[in-house]
Amino acid sequence: MDWSLTISLFLLLSAPFVGSFINLVAERWPKGESFVYGRSHCGHCGHVLGWNDLVPVVSWGIARGKCRYCNIRISIRHPVAELSALGVAVWSFALFSGPMSWITVLFGWTLLAVSLVDLRWLWLPDALTLALGLAGLVTGWVLTPADVPGRLIGAAAAYAILTLAAWIYRRYRKREGLGAGDPRLFGAIGAWVGWQGLGTVLLYAGICGLLLVLIRARGAHPVGLTTRLPFGPCLCVGAWLVWLYGPLYVGPAN
Questions:
Q1: Per the domain annotation, does 106 fall within a domain?
Q2: Do the Cβ atoms of 191 and 129 come closer than 8 Å?
Q3: Across the strands, what pairs with 73?
Q4: Who contacts 103 (Cβ-Cβ below 8 Å, separation ≥6)?
Q5: Domains in the chain, number
Q6: Does residue 137 sit in the same domain as residue 84?
Q7: Quick check: is 167 in a domain?
Q8: Quick one: which of 7, 72, 127, 164 has the fewest CB in 10 Å?
Q9: pLDDT beyond 70 at 110
Q10: What mean pLDDT do residues 218-230 have?
Q11: Same domain, yes or no, for 37 and 145?
């Protein structure tokens, strides 16, 4: 039996269910509710859901995005999270194979969890970012031990960069410009991409942030100088792209 192929297929087939669980974590954890114990239920009427209500994407589509028991609309976050987790898996297996693809899938799913929590609640859990950073260092030690010093430097530098940026903004604008979790998340990302990838991560994150502002500006609520927007998902997008394709590099002119 080809265990490598078996593991890859398992991760691919389980991806939508993982996305459903990630969405459950993002919904319950910030409210202090257990996401391990207890039956799944409708968030509106409290009706306990059966297995046919919990098939990723399919159940939401068949019910036309509404609860079958109270007819209240179910957030599109559910299928989006499930399809995103599947997309992460497909993208990972398209670029890598074997253990590297498995690591990439797990990295992507963790970034997805961080992004969903921050998008929903403007909160970056320290437990999640710390685990992400430690996993980055362990991954480096297993794959390329010689890169561990660069990853440590990347983690420290990333944390210092955003901490300094937040301090400067707070000092001169007299209000908070970054959440306390953003420097920690960037530090965790530095443990994955090393110091060499930090600039590209910030570039991608900045572009993502501008797009987020434009999207919000076209919505019902105007975007002002004091509007709070999640930066964590933008950092996650940057981390994902740099991990997959490496940092941008401008070589010397010929």
A1: no
A2: no
A3: 66
A4: 139, 143
A5: 2
A6: no
A7: yes
A8: 127
A9: yes
A10: 74
A11: no
- 143 lies in the same domain as 242: yes
Query: Within a domain: residue 58?
Result: yes
For residue 48, give the amino acid letter: V
Q: Where are the beta strands (DSSP E) in 117-248?
A: none
Nearest to 83 by CA among 35, 28, 22, 125: 22
The answer to whether position 188 is within a domain reads yes
Contacts of 76 (CB under 8 A, 6+ apart): 65
Residues 159 and 183: beta-carbon distance below 8 Å: yes
Q: What is the pTM of this model?
A: 0.92
51 vs 199, more confident = 199
Task: State pLDDT tens for residues 165-219.
Answer: 999 989 988 888 888 899 999 999 999 999 999 999 999 999 999 998 888 878 7
Same domain, 164 and 224: yes
Note the pLDDT tens digit of each residue in 206-217. 999 999 888 887
* In a shared domain, residues 76 and 127: no
d(CA 115, CA 122): 9
Under the phi-then-psi rule, with left for phi > 0, alpha for psi from -120 to 50, and beta for the rest, what region is 65? left
pLDDT of residue 75: 85
Whether residues 245 and 126 share a domain: the answer is yes
Tokens matching residue 89: 């898996």
Examine the domain organization and report whether 69 and 171 are in the same domain.
no
Q: Which of 111, 109, 106 is nearest to 139 (CA)?
A: 106
Q: Would you say 201 and 234 are in contact if contact means Cβ atoms under 8 Å apart?
A: no
Which of 132, 137, 138, 161 has its CA nearest to residue 151? 137
My answer on whether 132 and 71 are in the same domain is no
* DSSP SS3 for 168: helix
Structural domain harbouring 63: 1-95
